[in-house]
């Protein structure tokens, strides 16, 4: 199995730009069906990577929020 690389904010932005490019190409429909299928598959893979990055970021935000929410509750007591 291939090693899964972790996205960084910079690579996330590049992946999002690639998704926009793929969407534009697919919308223009001036490619062959085979090319469009290949681009669609690439888009699905890139979207999955971005979703995973966003889920990880959401988890971090929740952890930070909980950390500081608990701190405030303790300070109020």
Describe the protein in words.
It is a single chain. The chain has one domain. It is 83% helix and 0% strand. The chain contains two helices and no strands.
- Helix and strand content put the structural class at mainly alpha
Count of individual helical segments? 2
Distance between the termini: 51 Å
> What is the C-alpha radius of gyration, as a whole number of Å?
19 Å
Q: Which term fits the overall shape?
A: rod-shaped
**What percentage of amino acids are in beta strands?**
under 5%
Uncertain spans, ≥5 residues at pLDDT below 50? none
Q: List the secondary-structure elements in sequence, H or E.
A: HH
Largest sheet: none
Number of strands: 0
Number of domains: 1
Q: Name the average pLDDT.
A: 86
Question: In percent, how helical is the residue content?
Answer: over 70%
Brief summary of the model shown:
This protein is mainly alpha-helical and 77 residues long. Helix content is 83%, strand content 0%. It has one domain (9-76).
Indicate the topology.
Blueprint: H1 9-28, H2 33-76
Helix pairs in contact: 1-2
């Amino acid at each position: 199995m291939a090693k899964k690389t972790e996205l960084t904010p910079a690579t996330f932005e590049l992946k999002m730009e690639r998704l926009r490019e793929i969407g534009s190409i697919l919308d223009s429909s001036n490619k062959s069906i085979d090319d469009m299928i290949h681009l669609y598959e690439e888009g699905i893979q890139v979207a999955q990577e971005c979703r995973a990055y966003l889920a990880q970021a959401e988890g971090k935000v929740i952890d930070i929020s909980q950390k500081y929410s608990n701190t405030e509750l303790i300070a109020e007591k």
